[in-house]
Amino acid sequence: MYSKSLIAGVFTLAATSSFAASSCGKVEIADMNWNSASFMANVDKFILDHGYDCDAELVPGDTMPTSTSMIEKGQPDIAPEMWTNAVSELIERGVKEKRLSIAGKSLSDGGEEGFWVPKYMVDKDPSLATIQGIIKHAKEFPNPENSAISAFYGCPAGWGCQISGGNLFTALNLKEAGFELIDPGSAAGLSGSLSRAYERQQPWFGYYWAPTAILGKYPMVKVDFGSGVDKEHYMKCISNNSCLDPKVTMYPPSPVYSITTTEFEKRAPQAYAYTVNRSFTNAQMNTLLAWMEDNQADGEYAAENFMLNHEEIWSKWVSNDVKAKLDKAIDNL
């Protein structure tokens, strides 16, 4: 016969274990409307569901409405890829009021912007990795519509980077060097100009950002302005349409974090710790986005492919016990 105290202890242990397994509960994850964020949301769903026994659900999201909803309504629980420059005041208020928690860096390098040239050009002439080299060899970048003018491909009209790119074009005296600032018309127009040049091994010089699929497909070199980063001047002048005296500065990295509600951090500390650890380099994300584009994959399919084929990345984010659970789930894909 078992003693009453032993039986009570067994029931207590079972109840405690059951609570620990279910304490993560329902988790809402913002599925943002761009590929890297949607991919990351689906990776989080898979890992939280199968590794931490959460009941994870994806909900549509976007930068401003998601951050506002997290502060005012406590929903969703997680925004996997928040470009915080765009909502810095909101995020700071949410943290100060103890409604939001800043977890890990979604992109360890931060969002990256710059002026770029194809790697094959730099391989032939290393000076083209610098703005001085670009200016010196301006005639090597002919405008397709007028070879007497050099071409610099800027940001599409209406984008924030149109302002910063235009101000840096002025600060670098590129017009005086013979360049024309070309509006590509759209993201497709900009990427199309780069991909056409690359496929034909032709010159190209222009603005681009990372992580993006195209930089995963086509190795590019970011041009060094020789100035370093003056973040204060960038924020106060370069990024503003009213900048009257733009000075040369490299683009500062854009902080990209995973943001959660403070309630989620308290309710599910182990799952929250995962969001602190989960991070991609831009090089990794560029490659993953290129795979998504080549395979016309949505976020869910890309996440499954990632879990199947990139254990060397995701296994570093979790404990051995959680990894064992994820391995079983992957075997069932």
From TrEMBL:
Family annotation (Pfam families): OpuAC
Stretch forming the signal peptide: 1-20
Protein name: Glycine betaine/proline transport system substrate-binding protein
One annotated Gene Ontology cellular component of this protein: ATP-binding cassette (ABC) transporter complex
GO MF terms, alphabetically ordered: transmembrane transporter activity
Keywords: Signal
Domain ABC-type glycine betaine transport system substrate-binding: residue ranges: 26-307
